[in-house]
Design goal:
This protein has 314 residues and is α+β, with helices and mostly antiparallel strands. It contains 9 helices and 14 strands. The strands form 3 sheets. An 8-stranded mixed β-sheet has the order 1-2-3-10-7-12-5-4. The protein has a 4-stranded antiparallel β-sheet with strand order 6-11-8-9, with no helix packed on it. Strand 2, helix 1 and strand 3 form a beta-alpha-beta unit.
């Protein structure tokens, strides 16, 4: 059953009780609903009950442990692509701090990150993050398959998935400190991923811009995910799906912990012929996804007005 929040963001059930199986009428119906939600809002809320309350408590507990570490230790989380390493201590964004685990569905990669933060080990942290990444990746893979099938482009799915890996970002957004700090957690932006799967504790703060420029508050429970279209999906879909601007604004008195799983592709993403027609002429040349990340980092002038079109627009 499709629901909408008060802000009209579509809520779609992805619960195990639904028995979503490819090829069934329910699967085909959900494919259409996913496509419609993404074309209208660029995002939707996925209800998903495979994260038990106990597991969620564990996950947010180890995240607090992580962010309580000394800043210099956290800054050891480095990556040549700035979007994938430590981000924090920014004067204009004093409430935000985050770290990235590249290829997080690999136990080896998650263990490497854990050992970097805790040289003496922290097996509980490693196990929690690894299990979380696998669940979020499962949601992402289901949604991605539905997107491809909804456009009749399923023959391209395997090539895309074989070159896809996941970055998990662990994020803390602190509480504004009276009059000395504003309440902006992260400024409005589009994701550079193909798709993003967001999860949070009980503290809301996510804002998404609609097509008509309105900002809407997205409220979702700790048992749900928000699925957001990234720039690479916008290119792949030939602008049928737009990556929405979104940011975080803090309004309460409790820290917000959130996790994002970002899908990146190491190959070339091409616009499939199935999404090109007279009403939708070809808008993008083949996209080198990793090349786009480097371009975005290097060309700050494009960040506020269309880096994707500047990089690979026709």
């Amino acid at each position: 059953m499709v629901k909408e929040t008060e802000s009209n963001i579509v809520v779609l059930p992805f619960c195990k009780e639904e028995n979503l199986q490819a090829g069934t009428s329910l699967w085909q119906k959900r494919c259409s609903e996913v496509r419609e939600a993404l074309e209208e809002y660029g995002c939707f809320i996925a209800e998903y009950n495979k994260l038990s309350p106990e597991f969620r408590d564990d996950m947010f507990g180890v995240m607090k442990e992580l962010f309580d570490l000394p800043t210099l230790r956290k800054m050891e989380n480095k990556n040549e692509i700035s979007l994938k390493g430590y981000f924090g201590q920014i004067p204009t964004l004093p409430l935000h701090e985050s770290l990235g685990i590249d290829n997080a569905t690999s136990l080896q990669a998650t263990q490497h990150f854990t050992n970097l933060m805790w040289p003496n080990g922290n097996s509980h942290f490693c196990e929690c993050v690894y299990e979380y990444a696998k669940v979020a990746a499962e949601v992402n893979e289901t949604v991605t398959r539905m997107i491809f099938e909804s456009y009749g482009a399923e023959k391209h799915l395997r090539t895309y998935m074989d070159s896809t890996s996941y970055l998990v970002r662990l994020i803390k957004t602190g509480v504004p400190n009276g009059d000395h700090e504003h309440n902006l957690g992260i400024s409005s932006h589009t994701d550079k991923s193909f798709t993003t799967i967001l999860h949070q504790n009980h503290v809301d703060g996510l804002q998404v811009d609609t097509k008509d420029g309105q900002k809407i508050d997205v409220e979702f429970s700790p048992s749900s995910f928000v699925v957001i279209a990234g720039d690479a999906l916008m290119a792949w879909s030939n602008d049928r799906i737009k990556s929405p601007n979104h940011g975080v604004v803090m309004k309460g008195k409790v820290d917000r912990y959130s996790m994002g799983l970002f899908a990146f592709n190491s190959g070339i993403i091409e616009v499939p012929e199935e999404v090109v027609d007279e009403e939708h002429p070809l808008m993008y040349k083949p996209l080198n996804h990793i090349g786009y990340l480097h371009f975005y980092r290097a060309h700050i002038d494009y960040k506020s007005h269309g880096p994707l079109k500047a990089y690979c627009g026709v």
